[in-house]
Design brief:
single chain; 151 residues; 5 helices; TCS_response_regulator; Sig_transdc_resp-reg_receiver; CheY-like_superfamily
Length: 151
């Protein structure tokens, strides 16, 4: 790894502790350095992204992995807020959820999600899907790097 390569900064918005643990393992076992930040619901995600209160020093994520079905503020609302915000809308959002309904898929893309991935039930498939997301967003695409303060 060269000195000018930045770790991939990922915000994981997920309320299922088992899924979080699995995602942390997959991201830790990957050759590309990453910073994985986790919030358990949509309200916390918006606070993190807006750097409110306890998140005043939160980094700007390069990628957001977003579950749809969460307490308080669900992923659909979070996606709408992100893509309506001039400062946040450029952050890629991958919806990673158990739902495979046509309505959720269509509405997520309609709200400008960058990708929609249905969580596989099988553990090996789940890990493979996450690894592919990690590989694509960490190696294949070129992401904007903004070190400037927001606000």
């Amino acid at each position: 790894m060269t000195a000018d390569v930045h770790p991939l900064c990922v915000l994981l918005v997920e309320d299922d502790a088992a899924d979080v643990a699995l995602m942390e393992t997959v991201f830790a076992d990957h050759e590309l350095t990453s910073e994985l930040h986790h919030v358990p619901d949509g309200a916390e995600a918006l606070a993190f992204l807006r750097r409110d209160a306890a998140y005043a020093d939160a980094p700007r994520p390069d990628l957001i992995l977003l579950d749809l079905n969460m307490p308080r503020v669900d992923g659909r609302q979070v996606l709408g807020h992100i893509k309506a915000d001039e400062d946040l809308k450029g952050i890629p959002v991958v919806v990673f959820t158990t739902s495979s309904t046509d309505t959720d898929v269509s509405s997520s893309y309609g709200a400008h999600a960058n990708a929609y991935v249905t969580k596989p039930i099988d553990l090996e498939d789940f890990e493979r899907a996450l690894s592919q997301i990690r590989e694509f967003w960490g190696h294949t695409v070129t992401l904007p790097r903004t070190d400037r303060p927001r606000g």
